[in-house]
Design a protein that fits this description.
The structure holds 2 protein chains of 2 kinds.
Chain A (H helix, E strand, L loop, with lengths): L2 H33 L2 H15 L29 H26 L8 H14 L6 H16 L2 H5 L3 H22 L4 H31 L4 H11 L3 H8 L5 H10 L7 H15 L5 H21 L6 H24 L2
Helix pairs in contact in A: 1-2, 1-3, 1-4, 1-7, 1-8, 1-9, 2-3, 2-8, 4-5, 5-7, 8-12, 8-14, 9-11, 12-13, 13-14
Chain B lengths: L2 H4 L25 H9 L2 H18 L3 E4 L4 E4 L3 E9 H25 L4 H4 L5 H5 L21 E3 L1 E5 L2 E6 L8 H14 L1 H7 L7 H11 L10 E4 L8 H11 L2 E3 L4 E4 L2 E6 L2 E4 L2 E4 L3 H4 L15 H6 L4 E3 L16 H9 L6 E2 L3 E2 L3 H9 L4 E5 L9 E2 L5 H13 L4 E5 L5 E6 L2 E6 L5 E4 L3 E3 L5 E4 L13 E9 L2
Parallel strand pairs in B: 3-24, 6-14, 7-8, 7-12, 12-13
Antiparallel strand pairs in B: 1-2, 4-21, 5-6, 9-10, 10-11, 15-18, 16-17, 16-18, 19-20, 21-22, 23-24
Helix pairs in contact in B: 3-7, 4-13
The chains are: A mainly alpha, B alpha+beta.
Chain lengths: 339, 481
């Protein structure tokens, strides 16, 4: 396959995975806006921004006017105290106004290359340029979503149901992946698309989990609901309940998200897929560096398979997984695209 | 609703051939089925059909991209849902004429890059050929595979009250064939029963015919050559077509940077290393294909490509240098080429053309500037052109001076009375001017699909069919029988 086409499909996979991931994080965050305490809403935004390694518009979240510098504490409005009620309303108004800006920045902002729109549009643009390498069903599914998203602005979704919008967008992207799985010829194009998608997934997941572990080290106030959110982002809540009951323990949740072989969104499965796809693609022009890429994929798997269970320093392991995933990406580019 | 009502406001003008109606208002026989269908549909149904056709283009992403300062703007070519009908017998006449013409043009190219009998025998002045900027010295003495200089041609035909005329031959990198197929897919899905009943000849096998043609050009007569389509890239307005055709051919869609020449052979960079390419269907202009031979500033081309080509290690379609045969002034001689090379009378006529290099024709041109379209040789896309009837007296005077100063650079043609065909405009049928671009393929044999890209000037009264200036497209149905 033409190296440039392979790169296009690889990036299509990466961008769409990123858009999917963003829409799921934002879906949970939009739900949190309805009923979670202000402090948790802020930490939710912070987690998203930190995991994306992006500065929120206007600088740090801590500067929001209602709570001068520290993470805000939710004030329960007990009794008819007008004072407290008023304060809470102001605080909530700020929360919502800020949230609108933040959500817009992460969803539709054209100038933000990591907004959901930008990721989706980049994925679709790669597909547009490589349409002869994918099939008509895939293109159609992707293009219809694009035409729909193109017309939507934040105000259109904000007052009605932002979580509904994010759910639908995630579903659209997953439908595309389903169409691809059901119809695409399993040639190199497929393997490169999958490779991009799952390398991206392991980068995103290791980054988000790392962010949460670091947050946990600070204030451990709402970790349980944070971990519930993470489980839901990776659609693992039912599985968790089935395997470990209803009590959410951060350590158990983390293990499930990283190592569970049955959970579709687990790191374990992502890294298994990466290794499989690399093997299916086979060697690039240079055997030496191709073998190095395969070894690196194997090392990534072994971190999760063999080191994770006995490790007492999960944070360090996650750092290693994130680093190796990044390195693997560079290596894949050198081996197959830019030799 | 009766036919009379639906077409009540449809005006027939004796100056223009109407594709659907006789001059006295009677419907042409081949169009009666279509007329019945259009009359039976309610205005709402008609609008829905038009919307469906339009929407199918944006849903499928059949677009050309306009790059502005901000975001790239993907536009669609507006498609009118009313097909243009052509009877098979009439089509076969066009087919014979186009085949004859392309045969003569290929022989002309072989001749002017070889012995140049045509100039020595005085059929055309040598300085016109050699002085043409599209004449490529690099090609002298070369014979492409099968003697095929032009493998893909997209002839522009117009129809007047006197019949079909060739307006331009388009022998370089003609585009539009993907729209022919896209129009067909969209329109037949919207007029399903009519399509079935009308027995329309198929055009969707074009890709197969193109593949057969390109295979026949492979070096050394190999039967299963590696074919690549060379595109200028995603910024080119015809990118959709390049991608579409690559898909139809099962060929790789390459840009210049994907190709490397080593040891006189062309290779493409694949995920497993370099792979030899045998045939390149190039959609990049001559000037840009090889910076070591033509324009050195080109980043679209492949250094060394011409060397590999002239060694016979790779085939190019079309061959470099074909532009000399579709030059605006050499065009005037094409009917003579048909007589000279084939010993036959041309089946398709040219538009009457006055060459200002000839003193008598120069005088005629200057005396009749208000009725003529004067074109500058070597320009395209409507640049350097005077449309006499629409120009001010000052513009005409100024232009006349230019013509008098360099008569060789100008030709003149009468303002064309392009035929008109009904279009659905704002829920009603109105006549609009149309042209016709069929595509002719030439390898060992000549191949054509029975159909064409029909361009239509959607603005009332406009004769400009270019998509950049309010032009749209129409499906063309060649009716069996």
């Amino acid at each position: 396959m033409l190296a440039r086409s392979a790169r296009g499909l690889y990036w299509m996979g990466r961008y769409l995975e990123r858009a999917d991931h963003l829409s799921r994080m934002l879906q949970l965050q939009a739900e949190a806006l309805v009923d979670r305490p202000t402090g948790e809403i802020y930490s939710g935004w912070r987690r998203i921004y930190r995991s994306l390694d992006r500065e929120p518009p206007g600088g740090g979240l801590e500067l929001a006017p209602s709570h001068g510098g520290t993470a805000p504490q939710f004030q329960r409005a007990e009794g008819p105290s007008g004072q407290v009620q008023a304060q809470r309303r102001i605080s909530d108004d700020y929360t919502l106004a800020d949230s609108f800006t933040l959500a817009d920045d992460l969803t539709f902002e054209r100038a933000n290359p990591s907004s959901m729109w930008s990721c989706f549009a980049s994925g679709r643009e790669n597909a547009r340029q490589m349409r002869h390498c994918i099939n008509a069903e895939m293109w159609r599914s992707l293009n219809l979503t694009y035409l729909k998203l193109q017309r939507i602005r934040m105000l259109d979704i904000w007052l009605a149901s932002p979580e509904g919008f994010y759910t639908e967008t995630a579903e659209d992207i997953e439908t595309f992946m389903g169409v691809a799985a059901a119809t695409m010829y399993r040639d190199e194009g497929w393997h490169f698309m999958q490779l991009g998608r799952f390398i991206e997934r392991s980068q995103l997941a290791s980054s988000l989990l790392l962010t949460q572990l670091e947050e946990d080290e600070g204030a451990a106030e709402h970790t349980e609901s944070d971990w519930t959110t993470l489980l839901r982002i990776y659609r693992a809540q039912d599985a968790y309940t089935r395997v470990s009951g209803v009590e959410i323990s951060p350590g158990v949740a983390l293990d499930l998200l990283v190592t569970d072989p049955l959970l579709p969104d687990s790191m374990r499965r992502a890294l298994d897929t990466v290794a499989q796809e690399l093997a299916a693609i086979g060697s690039g022009p240079d055997r030496e560096s191709s073998a190095a890429a395969n070894r690196m994929a194997g090392r990534l798997r072994s971190l999760v398979l063999y080191e994770w269970p006995d490790s007492s320093d999960k944070l360090r392991l996650l750092v290693s997984i994130a680093d190796l995933s990044r390195q693997l990406h560079s290596l894949v580019s050198v081996v197959y695209f830019d030799y | 609703m009766t036919t009379a009502d639906r077409f009540r406001d449809y005006s027939i003008d004796a100056n223009f051939f109407d594709e659907m109606f006789h001059a006295d208002g009677r419907t042409r026989d081949d169009w009666k089925g279509l007329e019945r269908t259009l009359t039976d549909l309610s205005p709402e149904e008609l609008t829905a059909i038009q919307e469906r056709v339009t929407r199918s283009f944006s849903n499928e992403g059949i677009t050309f991209t306009v790059y502005g300062d901000d975001e790239a703007d993907e536009r669609i070519i507006p498609i009118d849902c009313v097909p243009r009908l052509i009877a098979e017998a009439e089509w076969r006449g066009l087919e014979a004429g186009l085949t004859q013409r392309l045969k003569a043009l290929n022989l002309f190219l072989q001749d002017v890059y070889g012995e140049s009998r045509v100039t020595r025998d005085g059929v055309i002045p040598a300085d016109m050929v050699m002085g043409c900027p599209q004449y490529r010295m690099e090609m002298r003495g070369f014979t492409p595979p099968q003697g095929t200089w032009v493998a893909v041609c997209g002839t522009d035909l117009v129809r007047t009250n006197d019949g079909y005329r060739v307006l331009e031959d388009n022998l370089r990198v003609p585009s539009g064939v993907s729209y022919m197929i896209a129009n067909r897919k969209a329109v037949k899905a919207s007029l399903r029963r009519l399509y079935r009943a009308s027995r329309v000849l198929e055009v969707e096998n074009y890709g197969r015919l193109l593949l057969d043609t390109l295979r026949e050009l492979a070096p050394g007569g190999q039967t299963n050559p590696t074919i690549a389509l060379l595109t200028p890239g995603v910024y080119n307005s015809a990118f959709y077509e390049h991608m579409f055709l690559a898909g139809e051919l099962g060929a790789e869609l390459v840009e210049g940077r994907d190709l490397v020449v080593s040891d006189g052979f062309v290779h493409m960079r694949t995920t497993t290393g370099l792979q030899k390419v045998d045939v390149i269907y190039r959609r990049v202009d001559d000037d840009f294909i090889d910076p070591t031979v033509f324009r050195p500033d080109s980043v679209l081309g492949v250094p060394g490509l011409m060397d590999a080509y002239l060694r016979g290690n790779v085939a190019l379609a079309n061959a470099p240098g074909t532009g000399v045969a579709d030059d605006k002034s050499i065009y005037a001689y094409v009917p003579d080429f048909v007589r000279y090379y084939l010993g036959e009378e041309p089946l398709l006529q040219n538009v009457e053309t006055y060459l200002c290099r000839r003193p008598q024709e120069l005088e005629y041109t200057l005396d009749n500037l208000d009725n003529l379209v004067v074109k500058k040789v070597g320009e395209s896309g409507g640049y350097g052109m005077l449309v006499g009837p629409h120009a001010t007296p000052e513009e005409r005077t100024e232009y006349a001076e230019q013509v008098r100063a360099n008569p060789d650079d100008f030709i003149a043609q009468p303002t064309l009375a392009l035929s008109r065909s009904p279009c659905l405009i704002g829920g009603k049928f109105e006549p609009r001017h149309v042209d016709l671009r069929p595509f002719v393929l030439h390898g060992q044999t000549t191949r054509m699909v029975p159909g064409a890209f029909c361009r239509v000037a959607l603005r009332r009264g406009s004769l400009v069919v270019n998509s950049s200036q309010g032009g749209g497209g129409k499906d063309v149905w060649v009716l069996e029988g």
